[in-house]
Every structure is written in C-alpha cells, then in structure tokens.
Amino acid sequence: MIWIVPALAILVGIGLAVQAIRARGPEISLQFVAAEGLEANKTRVKFKDVEIGTVKSIALNPDRKSVRVSVQMDKQAEGLLVEDTRFWVVRPRVAAGGVSGLATLLSGAYIALDPGKSETSRQEFVGLEEPPLVTSNTPGRQFVLRADDLGSLDIGAPVYFRRIQVGRVVGYGMQKDGSGVSVRIFVDAPYDAFVTQASRFWHASGIDVSLNADGVKLDMQSLVSLALGGIAFSSPNGSDEEPVQKAEADSSFVLHSDQAAANRIPETRVEKYVLTFRESLRGLAVGAPVDFRGLVAGEVSRIDLNFEKEKTDFTMLVEISLYPDRFAKRTRNQSGDEVSAKASRDILEKMVGKGFRAQLRTGNVLSGQRYIALDFFANAKAGKIDWSRRRPELPVQPGTLDSLQDQLLAIVESLRHTMQHVDQLVVRLDKEVAPELTATLKDARKTLDSAERMLSSADKALVSDAPLQLEMRDTLREVGKAATAVRNLADLLERQPEALLSGKKGE
C-alpha cells in the first residue's frame, strides 16, 4: 500500500505533462534587423492585448545581418500562424503619422501580431521594422495611385475627402519601368464607399497658390497636410441613366499634381493648330487657356519665333491644342455624337468664313497673364485655312490692346496737326486782324466819350421839363447800356482778338 502514493504522484505528473504538451503550441522563428527591447523568457507576443506566446531565445543569424528570435506560441495561436501573418516590435516611436507605443515605456516592448487570411501554415517569418498603419481587422479598402513623382508624401500622410480625413498613405514604391511611382492608400469604412470609378485624386500638400489668367487662387486642405503632405479626392455624381459604379479594392487611379489638373475633363481627341502674331506675346505662357466665349476649348502647347526672310521681320508662332469634341452638341443628360475629323474641318472652315478668329487678350491686369480668345469678328478680313500644312494655321485678329494703342496714336497725330493749324491762325490774327481791330477800337472809344459828354449836357438841359425829362432818361438809359456793351466788346477784343473767330473763352 505504501507504493500507492508515489504511483498516484507519478500519474498526476504524467497527466500534467500531457496536458502541458497538449496546451503547448508550435515554436516559430522571427527574423528582425535588431533585437532592441527584446529579452529571452520575458518579452511576450500579444494579439488584441492577449498574451499568446513568449520569446525563448535570441541569437545572431550566420550572416550577422539580422537576429533570429525563437518564440514559443500557445495552442490557441496555432490558427493565426499562416503565410501572410505579420509580426513587429511595439516600442515607443515618433513618426510623421504621430506618436505610438507610449504604454511600453513602463511595461516594456512586446511583439504584436496581425493575422493573415491565408490557409497555408508557416513556422518562419520576417518581422516588420515599422508597425503597419492598417491591420487586417481594420474596415476599409486599399487603392493604388500612379504619379510622376512622390512629391512631399510619406507613410502616414492623410487622405482627404471634402476636407475630412478619411484615410492615409500606407506605402509607396517605384514602378518597374521607372516611369513613375505607385502610392498605396487605405480609405477607412464607410468612406471607402465614396471612391468610385470616376474619382479623381490630386496632391494636397502644403499651400497651392496659382497666379494665372483666371486670377489669384489659394487652396489648402489642413495644417497637417501643410506639414506632412497629403492626398485629396473627389467623386463626380453620375446621372440617373448612367450611375457611377463603386471602385473595387486595389483599383488603380492617376494622382494629379493639383486639383485643377484633376478636374480637367479628359479629352479623347486633340487637334493642333498654329497662330501667327505680329505683336508681343509677353504674358502668354505654355498651358494658357484657349477660350471660346468663356468656355475652355483648348490650351497653348508651344510658343516659338519665326524669321521671315522676304520681309526681314520676325513673327510669333503659337501652337494650340483644340478639343473639337467640346464643340459638339450636348444636352443635359446625354452627350452628342462625336464629330469626325472631316466634319470638324468643314465646320471650322465655315466658321472662319463667318469671321471666326483667334485673338490675344489680357486675362489678369495685375499679373499681366494673357490667353487666346476664339470668337467671331464682324469686320474681320476674309481668310481661310490651309489644310495641306502639317499644322493648319488659323487666322488671327489684332489684340484689343494693340488696336487701342493704334487708335491713340492716330488721335495724337490728328491733335498735333490741329495745333499746327491753330498756331498758324493765331500768327495771322496777330499780323493782319489785330492792327485793324486796334484802330477801330480807338475810334469807338472816341465816339463813346463824345456821346457821354453830349448825354451829360442833355441831362442838365432837361432838368426843368419833367415829362421830357422822363422820356429822355429812358432813352439815355438805353444808350448807356449800349455804350457799356460796346465798351465791354472793345475790352474783350483787345485781350482776345481771336474771339471774333473762336468765340469768347469759357463759352
């Protein structure tokens, strides 16, 4: 009977050992660049803040470029160890996206796990050096953006929709052919439903200031984008007949340089034309709009200088890109049929015959920016298009500023001739008319003095006869007014002899 107690102890020990073996999970290997913050038999592996494993040993790899960390996992974590599962060390970090891992200042670093969705088990993993911005349990979708360059974007840069942050940049890399970069973004749910097949993305980094023919524009998403850069997007609404479809996960979009470029209507057909100007093109730049009565019908694609040997003069050549489909008829909800190349030429030929011309105009007085305007001019000279040339040439109309300058020069020239005639007339008056007027005025003064003396004598003689006195007083009063008028006229002609021809000054 004495052996019963040891036998029971052995059986209990065997049971505990079997239970421990059954509860024990697989042992895995993690590879990191460095083992900063990790300690054997102390550092834990956590998922959703639940401990599911412990670090057993840490050793250098044979190539001495990384460390190998052996981890004993619990049985409950066996289903999480698949091919696309990710591991990383959680420690205090300060990055562009913010500060993370502050809780480990007291508790120490630990290894976090993000389970994958694969069904294939795995025992060896390469750990991440930076924590992922998006884990597998975060609701939302990822999309790929293609751009010419990265700009000021970085991991964690915000993504905006209607100036609300709805996502972030989770990765970027160079395209295989080196022609650009690919930026991967993650849009949180439920905002990911706003990403459609017609969505347009653009750089929203810093302050966007533009000074062009349309005026001065300033745009900024937020102070965060000013410091870290960012991406913004918009989603045009579809019509009832053609609703816009939602974009699938991992859909690819173009990342434009700014909002204006993103909102620009994509053109399926572009036609090149040449304009010849004999005036200064100062203020006109490549990319300036080609305007037709307020609507953008194209843009300036090239500016060049041409020397004419016959005239020994220079002309300015401006190449424009026209979008003929924008001249097609369009209704509110249904677009018109596309215009063929031949039909487009016939229409343009008829328009030119009715005075359709290109003109250089000033779009912004402050900046001096100019643009090309297309319009009909009633007094335009006859013109046509030579379609045999590689780049057909559209006839032009002189700019309004140059026309105004020509008119002002003509007015100044006319005034100059008028002043010359006036000077000649004044000289003639001084030499011919003025002496005769002077003699006449002297005789008039003598006559007036004699009349005054006679009237004074008559006044004294009529004092005794009252009725006659009254009549004579009225008569003398009228004569006095006439004498005063003649005297004023004489004074005026002495000062201004030319008043006989041009009239009194100020009247």
Query: How confident overall, as mean pLDDT?
Result: 78
Our Rg estimate from Cα atoms comes to 48 Å
Largest sheet: 7 strands, mixed
Envelope shape: elongated
Name the beta content range.
25-35%
- Strand ordering within the main sheet: 5-8-2-3-4-1-9
Q: Please give the alpha-carbon distance between the first and last residues.
A: 150 Å
The number of helical elements comes to 8
Tell me the helix content.
25-40%
Secondary structural class:
alpha/beta
Number of beta strands: 25
Low-confidence stretches: 330-337
The number of distinct structural domains comes to 4
Which key features would you list for this structure?
507 residues; alpha/beta; 7-stranded mixed β-sheet
Characterization of the model:
Helix 6 runs antiparallel to helix 7. The strands form 5 sheets. The protein has a 7-stranded mixed β-sheet. With 507 residues, it is of the alpha/beta class. The chain has 4 domains: 22-126, no CATH class; 140-263, no CATH class; 271-398, no CATH class; 414-502. The chain contains 8 helices and 25 strands. The chain has helices spanning 4-23, 104-107, 223-228, 259-263, 341-353, 400-461, 466-495, 499-502; strands at 24-32, 44-47, 50-60, 67-74, 86-90, 93-95, 98-100, 110-114, 124-126, 140-147, 158-161, 164-174, 181-188, 200-203, 208-212, 215-219, 231-234, 252-256, 271-277, 289-292, 295-308, 313-322, 356-362, 370-376, 396-397.
